[in-house]
């Protein structure tokens, strides 16, 4: 694979210069931890193959509800993305995946790819949770309110989970999806 290639040195020096947490997980593979705001961390695998660098990052487990709505939302996002695309595995867990020719790998390209993974995972996370886990979020909100518990880590969902929210459960059809019908 990359025994005599300068690529590992390029990858490692780029990761060090960017100050991200990483470790080598094999002769030609790395795991990089990207800190986020909405999704607190995204773990990204970089795997050097014979011809391409494969990029893979777990984003979210399979949704509890509205699977088709989530898949449609992800496919629409894919049309506007650079370097990686949303994908699902056999059980429905959501990933970001991409492949780039080894000839294109530079420190700048590694930075762009990791930036894309972080941006797409982090900026999409709350919306993905609303679509795929809206009912569970609303139940958790109501349970915490009933017990006087903190809502701090649910504040991103106040616009739809709080009882006074315009699209709260009372205003939504079963399944939590608001339609224009």
Tell me what you see in this structure:
The chain is an alpha+beta fold. The protein has a single domain, classed as Yope Regulator, Chain: A (2-Layer Sandwich), CATH 3.30.1460. The chain is 38% helix and 23% strand. The protein is built from four helices and six strands, in the order αββββαββαα. The chain has helices at 7-18, 67-78, 107-147, 158-161; strands at 21-26, 29-35, 41-48, 52-60, 85-88, 94-101. Strands 1-2-3-4-6-5 form a six-stranded antiparallel sheet. Strand 2 and strand 3 (41-48) form a beta hairpin. The longest helix has 41 residues, at 107-147. The N and C termini lie far apart (55 Å).
Let me know the number of strands.
Answer: 6
Indicate the mean pLDDT. 88
Total tally of structural domains: 1
Q: Report the CATH architecture.
A: 2-Layer Sandwich
Helix content: 25-40%
State Rg: 19 Å
Question: How is the topology of this model organized?
Answer:
Layout: H1 7-18, E1 21-26, E2 29-35, E3 41-48, E4 52-60, H2 67-78, E5 85-88, E6 94-101, H3 107-147, H4 158-161
Helix pairs in contact: 1-3
Keywords:
4 helices; elongated; Yope Regulator, Chain: A; alpha+beta; 6-stranded antiparallel sheet; about 180 residues; disordered C terminus
What is this structure, in a nutshell?
The protein is α+β, with helices and mostly antiparallel strands and 181 residues long. It has four helices and six strands; from the N terminus they run H-E-E-E-E-H-E-E-H-H.
């Amino acid at each position: 694979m990359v025994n005599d290639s300068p690529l590992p040195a390029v990858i490692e020096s780029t990761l060090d210069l960017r100050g991200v947490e990483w470790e080598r997980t094999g002769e030609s593979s790395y795991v990089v931890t990207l800190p986020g705001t909405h999704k607190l961390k995204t773990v990204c695998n970089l795997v050097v193959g014979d011809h391409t660098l494969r990029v893979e990052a777990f984003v979210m487990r399979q949704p509890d509800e509205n699977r088709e709505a989530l898949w449609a939302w992800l496919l629409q996002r894919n049309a506007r993305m650079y370097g990686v695309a949303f994908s699902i595995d056999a059980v429905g867990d959501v990933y970001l995946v991409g492949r780039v020719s080894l000839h294109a790998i530079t420190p700048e390209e590694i930075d762009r790819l990791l930036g894309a993974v972080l941006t797409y995972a982090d900026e999409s996370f709350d919306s993905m949770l609303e679509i795929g886990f809206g009912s569970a979020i609303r139940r958790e909100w109501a349970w915490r309110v009933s017990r006087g518990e903190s809502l701090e880590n649910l504040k991103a969902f106040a616009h739809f989970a709080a009882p006074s929210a315009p699209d709260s459960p009372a205003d939504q059809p079963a399944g939590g999806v608001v339609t224009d019908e």
